[in-house]
């Protein structure tokens, strides 16, 4: 078992304290709300999607270090990608968090692989991604991880 301190690596701490793209996005044409009742993480995600490409993405909300860092890293990872690429990325990311020895090279998202050791935290790390999917599908109801 990994120590919890090891999970909170420098990059995660940096992204949780100084989240990237942390703002309301003016001109957003998609948005969705997500909630993780297990931990109390809440976020609202804003997107500008133009012809299947995520042109801009931002979020705001409050949650634990893992949920905030994961949302911040996600906004950096999906900006400029197509909806299809984004869905494939989420699938790979989810595997990274749930399956041991997943071989995927996910760049910076790889940092969150340690979450696998803490099943309670997987929902914190995937909240932003579930919310992203809801925003892309134009879902009206808030997303809950439960
Ligand atoms: Zn959390």
Overall, the morphology is globular
Give me the count of strands.
Answer: 4
Strand content: 15-25%
What's the main sheet like? 4 strands, mixed
- Tell me the quaternary state: single chain
What's the total helix number?
Answer: 5
From the alpha carbons, calculate the radius of gyration and give it in angstroms.
Answer: 14 Å
Distance between the termini: 26 Å
Ligands, deduplicated: zinc ion
Order of helices and strands: HHEEEHHHE
- Spans of at least 5 consecutive residues with low confidence: none
Brief characterization of the structure:
The protein has 146 residues and is α+β, with helices and mostly antiparallel strands. It has helices at 4-7, 10-17, 65-78, 83-98, 119-136; strands at residues 30-36, 41-50, 53-62, 143-144.
Describe the structure.
The protein has helices at residues 4-7, 10-17, 65-78, 83-98, 119-136; strands at 30-36, 41-50, 53-62, 143-144. With 146 residues, it is of the alpha+beta class. Strands 3-2-1-4 form a four-stranded mixed β-sheet, with helices on one face. Strand 2 (41-50) and strand 3 (53-62) form a beta hairpin. Helix 2 packs across helix 3 (65-78), helix 3 packs across helix 5 (119-136) and helix 4 (83-98) runs antiparallel to helix 5 (119-136). The longest helix has 18 residues, at 119-136. The protein is globular and about 40 Å long. The protein starts with a helix and ends with a strand. Zinc ion (ZN) is lined by residues 36, 39, 41, 63-64, 66-67, 124.
Secondary structure: elements and pairs:
Blueprint: H1 4-7, H2 10-17, E1 30-36, E2 41-50, E3 53-62, H3 65-78, H4 83-98, H5 119-136, E4 143-144
Parallel strand pairs: 1-4
Antiparallel strand pairs: 1-2, 2-3
Helix pairs in contact: 2-3, 3-5, 4-5
């Amino acid at each position: 078992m990994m120590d919890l301190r090891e999970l909170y690596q420098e990059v995660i701490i940096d992204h949780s304290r100084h989240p990237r793209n942390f703002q309301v996005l003016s001109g957003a044409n998609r948005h969705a709300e997500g909630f993780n009742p297990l931990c109390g993480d809440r976020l609202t995600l804003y997107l500008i999607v133009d012809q299947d490409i995520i042109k801009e993405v931002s979020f705001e909300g409050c949650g634990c270090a893992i949920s905030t860092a994961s949302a911040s890293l996600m906004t950096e990872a999906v900006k400029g990608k197509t909806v299809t690429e984004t869905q494939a990325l989420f699938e790979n990311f989810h595997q990274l968090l749930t399956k041991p020895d997943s071989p995927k090279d996910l760049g910076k998202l790889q940092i969150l692989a340690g979450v696998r050791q803490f099943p309670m935290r997987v929902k914190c790390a995937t909240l932003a991604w579930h919310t992203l999917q809801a925003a892309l599908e134009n879902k009206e109801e808030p997303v809950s991880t439960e």
